[in-house]
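Table S2 (text version). Query chain:
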Amino acid sequence: MAIVAQQTKLSKILWPVLAWAVALIIFFPIAYMVMTSFKTDADAVKPELLFTFTPTLENYANMTENYDYWRFASNSIITSVAATLFTLFVAIPCAYAMAFTPSRGTKDILMWMLSTKMLPAAAVLYPMIYMTKAAGLYDTHFLIIMVLSLINLPIVIWMLFTYFKDIPKDIIEAAKMDGVNTWGEVREVLIPLAWGGIASTALLCFIFCWNEAYWTVRLTTTEAATLSKLIEGNRAPEGLFFGRLSAVSTAAVGPIVVLGWFCQKQLVQGLTFGAVK
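Corresponding structure-token output:
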């Protein structure tokens, strides 16, 4: 019994210490990026000045005055919000049909959709650029919204499908017996019952859209360029300007980190509402 009690006390100390160590390892790059954003470009390349430097807002002032940060930020907001809404508009009816009126090929369709995530993006980059330029869609909000929606649609459908499967079919059947049409079932019954799962899925989809860099960098130049393009633009033949790059990265990461911090309770509740089985 003494050995068991000793192991219990040791585990109570060991696991929190291990959790804090892992959290600090994950948080360190973010903290280093934020700290570097307050250094000059000259100080940013000097590791010995990690904790001994004079903070400056020069990088942030340069970002807003010379790099038109707000235009890139507004493009990120427009494309991320619109792509999230459009993805949910398509995914909710799809997940509803698969969850409550499944067919023999439902599982095959779900696996096929998930398999599209395994396609290397580089394999379709040049055809995508060629077709979008020929169609006059290159560097437009519409193109970025469609690309972001199609990228995240399989994952969103999968998540919503698992959430909807946890809802008893008897509730939907009772609504049918009361004369509610299909749209009424989705609007009046399904969405209120699965609101937590839908909200968490929307939040994750928004984060994925906001963080997408590969396509937003390669399919835009100026008009629809997002914050990822602004970050990529801090490269020059002379090298990387780490101070300015860190400031732009902090300004790009900051809003999504704050959003996730305030919505963490809803996010966890939504993610535990259903699970991929």
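Notes on Table S2: The first helix runs from residue 2 to 36. Residues 2-36 form one domain.
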